[in-house]
Design brief:
CATH topology of one domain: Spore Coat Polysaccharide Biosynthesis Protein SpsA, Chain A
Largest sheet: 8 strands, mixed
Structural class: alpha/beta
Strand content: 15-25%
Helix content: 40-55%
Oligomer: single chain
Length: about 300
C-alpha cells in the first residue's frame, strides 16, 4: 500500500513547526506528501524548506476545507490518503498504525484519537469536554463518522463516492463523506492508540464560533444524509451538560458554568439553523451555501 500524507492549511504559519515535526518524525515515511494551501497570505517557504519532498497545491483564493481536501484527493496517487490538521502534532508511529486496518478491503476509513493537551482557560476546558474529536479510550471496529483532524481514507473509496462536498466550507465535510461511504457498504474504524495532540487555544469569541460552526454544519450533514448517529446519545449529552455545570461549582469557577449554559444554547441555535443549511444543500446542488460563519479561517495559534 502506498501512502499519501496531506496537510490542508490556511494562514497556519504559527503551526509550521508542528507540521514539520509531524511529517519528518514518522517511523514510516509517506510515499507522497501534499501541502494544500487554501489561499493563505503567508509564505510557505519556511515550511517547504524543511520538507523538500512535499508537493504544494495552492488555491488562489480561500475555498474552504472541503475544496482543500478535494485538491489533496485529486493530486493523490497513493492507495491511502491520510489527513493531518496543521494544529495536530502526530505521534511518531501515526502513519505506521493508522494504515493497519486497511488490510480489510471493507474498511474505507480509519480515525485516530485527537487529544486536547492545552487546558489553559475555561474555553479550553469546554473544547475538551464537549468538542472532543475521538471515540473513546478503546478501539472500535465501526463508528458513524470520522473526525477530519486525524483521518485516513482508502483513495478509491473516496473517489467512488465523489470525494468531499465542497459546499461544506468550514466544517462537516468529514461527517458528510463518512455517511456516504457507509451508505456504499464500507466500514469506518477507530484506533485509540493512533494519537495526535491538538495544539489549539480558545478565547470567548473563538469557542462560540467553533461551537456554532461545528454543530451547524455537522447537523446539516446529518440532515442531508438522513443519518442522525452522533458521538454521544441525547442522554449522554445531557449528562455531559450536568457534569460540566457541576465542574464550575466544584472548582469555584462560576464563569465556567455560565459558559456551559451559553454554549449549549448556541448548540440549540445551530440545530435550528442547520435546517435552512440542509435545505440549501438539497436545493442548490452546485452553488454556494449562504450561511453565517461560512468562511474557513484555518488554524491559528490563538484562535480568534
Amino acid at each position: 500500500m502506498r501512502i499519501c500524507l496531506a496537510v490542508c492549511l490556511y494562514e497556519a504559519s504559527d503551526f509550521y513547526p508542528t507540521i514539520i515535526a509531524s511529517i519528518t518524525g514518522q517511523t514510516l515515511k509517506a510515499d507522497e506528501i501534499l501541502i494544500v494551501d487554501d489561499g493563505s497570505s503567508q509564505s510557505l517557504a519556511p515550511l517547504l524548506e524543511q520538507i523538500p519532498l512535499a508537493r504544494c497545491i495552492t488555491h488562489e483564493q480561500n475555498q474552504g476545507i472541503g475544496a482543500a481536501r478535494n485538491s489533496a484527493l485529486q493530486h493523490c496517487t497513493a492507495d491511502i490518503l491520510v489527513f493531518l490538521d496543521a494544529d495536530a502534532l502526530a505521534s511518531p508511529d501515526y502513519l505506521e498504525q493508522i494504515i493497519k486496518p486497511f488490510s480489510d478491503e471493507q474498511v474505507a476509513g480509519v480515525n485516530g484519537q485527537g487529544v486536547e493537551v492545552i487546558q489553559e482557560s475555561i474555553y479550553d476546558w469546554f473544547r475538551k469536554a464537549v468538542l472532543f474529536q475521538h471515540w473513546g479510550a478503546t478501539d472500535r471496529d465501526s463508528v458513524p463518522f470520522l473526525f477530519g483532524m486525524t483521518a485516513a481514507y482508502r483513495t478509491a473509496a473516496l473517489l467512488e463516492v465523489g470525494g468531499f462536498d465542497q459546499r461544506f466550507q468550514v466544517s462537516g465535510e468529514d461527517m458528510d463523506v463518512s455517511y456516504r461511504l457507509r451508505t456504499r457498504g464500507y466500514r469506518l474504524v477507530y484506533r485509540s492508540g493512533v494519537t495526535v495532540k491538538h495544539q489549539r487555544r480558545d478565547t470567548a469569541k473563538s469557542i462560540e464560533k467553533m461551537v456554532y460552526r461545528h454543530c451547524c454544519w455537522g447537523f446539516a450533514a446529518q440532515r442531508k444524509n438522513r443519518c442522525y448517529e452522533n458521538k454521544l446519545s441525547l442522554a449522554a449529552s445531557g449528562l455531559v451538560f450536568i457534569t460540566q455545570l457541576l465542574r464550575g461549582v466544584r472548582t469555584a469557577q462560576p464563569g465556567y458554568s455560565l459558559l456551559v449554559v451559553k454554549l449549549h444554547l448556541v448548540i440549540i441555535r445551530a440545530w435550528f439553523s442547520s435546517a435552512a443549511v440542509a435545505n440549501q444543500l438539497e436545493n442548490n446542488h452546485q452553488g454556494e451555501v449562504v450561511s453565517p460563519h461560512n468562511v474557513w479561517e484555518g488554524h491559528q495559534k490563538n484562535a480568534d
